[in-house]
Write a structure and sequence with these properties.
Order of helices and strands: HHEEHEEEEEHE
Helix content: 40-55%
Distance between the termini: 39 Å
Number of helices: 4
Structural class: alpha+beta
Radius of gyration: 18 Å
Number of strands: 8
Largest sheet: 8 strands, mixed
Shape: globular
């Protein structure tokens, strides 16, 4: 009987790891979609629920309150702002329980529409993932900002909609 316990235990651990990875991917996808929606229909309280107490936004370390004020001020100035995610999500998983979610963001403001290679960085906090970073590659280059991320342990391509 003991001979069968070890293979069974190994199998259960493997299945648990697969399920955990899928759950994290699903959580990141859902929170990225919610973040996008909240940027279009600005709801400061709900957006604040997705953000870590400290966040790096467009190369600048900010508190959650400073981040929300930055968003509020931007949206006040840009009356006809909208954005959408127009690519699958690329999730890069790192050892320190954080995930970089990269995607192409199509933003419309000042009467012009442009695509940006954007990203959110999620960090585990109390068993869930919250946003600890937001930017796009073009802004990072212009600011000379480098997040100094290590090599990812795993990269997954995740569709925006759940596949049936």
């Amino acid at each position: 009987m003991r001979i069968f316990r070890l293979p069974l235990l190994i199998c259960l651990v493997f299945i648990a790891n697969i399920s955990f990875g899928d759950n994290v991917s699903d959580e990141i996808r859902e929170k990225t979609i919610t973040w996008n929606t909240l940027n279009n229909n600005y709801d400061e309280a709900k957006l604040g629920e997705l953000i870590m107490p400290k966040v790096v936004a467009y190369g600048e370390q900010q508190t959650r309150a400073e981040y929300l004020a930055m968003k509020r001020n931007f949206l006040r100035r840009q009356k006809h702002f909208s954005q959408s995610i127009v690519s699958p999500l690329s999730l890069s998983f790192y050892k320190a329980n954080f995930v970089k979610c990269s995607f192409t963001k199509q933003a419309t403001f000042n009467g012009k529409t442009k695509n940006y290679p954007a990203y959110l960085i999620f960090q585990e906090h109390d068993g869930h993932y919250l946003i600890s970073g937001e930017s796009d590659e073009l802004t990072d280059v212009n600011l000379g900002y480098n997040a100094h991320l290590p090599v990812a342990e795993e990269v997954q391509l995740v569709p925006l909609a759940e596949e049936g």
